[in-house]
Design brief:
The chain is mainly β. The protein is 10% helix and 33% strand. The strands form 2 sheets. The protein has a 6-stranded antiparallel β-sheet with strand order 3-2-1-4-7-8. A two-stranded antiparallel ribbon has the order 5-6. The relative contact order is 0.20.
Length: 118
């Protein structure tokens, strides 16, 4: 998982593999490691003005069972935009707004370095 401010990567982290279970949800809370502290000055200014938008990019591989047989790993590259308010929390019209991820465009492959096997 990588966070971008504009085109600059500001933080990244790797979430360890887990088993979700059928018809279940799984929440993961984890801190991302900052990359470049100079970029964070720009992020802090944008957050103070309530105009910050961070892009989150997620590269993952999923595997599932059908009729007792495990599938191969299916890779997915997803990205989304996270608006950040002046209080440092996710902002938006709806307070409990979920972040919607969509498939990353083929033009920018930011996660080639994060290719790993689960």
């Amino acid at each position: 998982m990588t966070f971008f401010f504009g085109q600059d990567p500001v933080a990244d982290d790797v979430i360890s593999s887990f088993y979700q279970g059928k018809d279940k949800t799984h929440h993961v809370r984890q801190d991302a490691k900052a990359k470049n502290t100079q970029i964070w000055k720009g992020v802090a200014r944008a957050v103070a003005n309530a105009t910050a938008q961070l892009k989150v990019s997620l590269a993952t591989q999923v595997r599932y069972k059908t009729w007792g047989k495990k599938s191969k790993h299916h890779g997915m590259n997803l990205e989304g935009v996270v608006p950040v308010g002046s209080d440092g929390k996710i902002s938006g019209k709806k307070k409990k707004k979920k972040i919607k991820l969509h498939h990353a465009s083929g033009k920018r492959k930011a996660f080639k370095k994060h290719h790993f096997k689960v």
